[in-house]
Amino acid sequence: MNHQKSFMAYALQLAQKGRGETHPNPMVGCVIVYQDTIIGQGWHQKAGTPHAEVHAIQSVKDKSLLKKSTLYVTLEPCRHHGKTPPCTSLILESEIPRVVVGCLDANPLVGGKGIQILKDAGCEVTQKVLEKECLELNAAFFTYHKKKRPYILLKWAQSQDGFIAPLAEQRQEESIFWLTSALAQQRVHQWRSEYAAILIGVQTLIDDNPQLTTRKWKGNTPQRCLIDPHHRAPKNAAIFQEGNPVFYFTKKKNHDLANTQQFVLPFIDPITEILEVLYHSKIISLIVEGGSSTLQHFLDQAYWDKIYKLEAPVILKNGIPAPDTQVQFIHKINLGPDTLYSVSQSDSKA
Asked: For residues 159 and 314, is the Cβ–Cβ distance under 8 A?
């Protein structure tokens, strides 16, 4: 690996420190190099706070060295005023002569304009260093801007014989049915912490009364979303009792529910309608956790970017069938006694 790639690889590592914290912004890492030595580094830590380039420049102790240094950044520097000033201005004010960029910004407010500003000011710009890795890091951000919808992960757990849960009459009252192990449950909470929103259908709420939090992992709870066109949700359900207001998708306003932000939709094409609401709410990524019918709607309409199927070493013999998918799972890893099968849309295009 040459020097440019090695410094960009380190910037990518820095960027990942912001996972689960930056949306709707992308994760970005930045290093500043003088004579093959890193003298400054930073990453975007949270939306609305300074960008990676700002942290990196501020971390340089001897600012006179900036005039002889190279700045490596995983994503094109911004050139517009948002909640923070444009990074291109700070780079030029710091008289940094060389900038190496991993990939272009998908935001139309930037989209190549940041690089052009640097070039027009006489800065030497190198592009597409570890571009594939930089694009993959922010797959959600790029999907959001290019497809005008959130990046979508479909996730479910099933028994070895293809059921996601026992039938209602087979369950013990007041008891949550767990298919997977504690390790797999913790990993699910980790995934939740990395996504901007989480969605279930009302039947899952009735059957499981989930909290949809990250209580088993240190991280932010995603925006919780519920599909309930006919007002079947119990008003004492756990998700209505605490936390941020639930995004509630329905056909008619439900005045019996507290702690909700309600979206009245025609439900002609409900999945598309919901994704449009999430897009305009700046939700860049969504994890869909159930139930089987809700997941099937996403599968049938090809609204997914990644699928996680957790298979537990359990035989139910009867129950609620897992979603029917003809997708070929590419990856397989063990999570304790459970097995995680996964596939992404990019796998089929590789």
From this structure: yes
* pLDDT tens digits in sequence order for the chain, 350 residues long: 588 999 999 999 999 999 999 999 999 999 999 999 999 999 999 998 999 999 999 999 999 999 999 999 999 999 866 666 789 999 999 999 999 999 998 877 677 889 999 999 999 999 999 999 999 999 999 999 999 999 999 999 999 999 998 887 666 655 567 899 999 999 999 999 999 999 999 999 998 999 999 999 999 999 999 999 999 999 999 999 999 999 999 999 999 999 999 999 999 999 999 999 999 999 999 999 988 999 999 999 999 999 999 999 999 999 999 999 888 999 999 999 999 999 999 886 64
CA–CA dist 82, 97 (Å, integer): 25
Q: Which residues have a catalytic role annotated?
A: 53
Three-state DSSP string of the chain:
CCHHHHHHHHHHHHHHHHCCCCCCCCCCEEEEEECCEEEEEEECCCCCCCCHHHHHHHHCCCHHHHHHCEEEEEECCCCCCCCCCCHHHHHHHCCCCEEEEEECCCCCCCCCHHHHHHHHCCCEEECCCCHHHHHHHCHHHHHHHHHCCCEEEEEEEEECCCEEECCHHHCCCCCCCCCCCHHHHHHHHHHHHHCCEEEEEHHHHHHHCCCCCCCCCCCCCCEEEEECCCCCCCCCCHHHCCCCCEEEEECCCCCCCCCEEEEECCCCCHHHHHHHHHHHCCCCEEEEEECHHHHHHHHHCCCCCEEEEEEECCCCCCCEECCCCCCCCCEEEEECCEEEEEEEHHHHHC
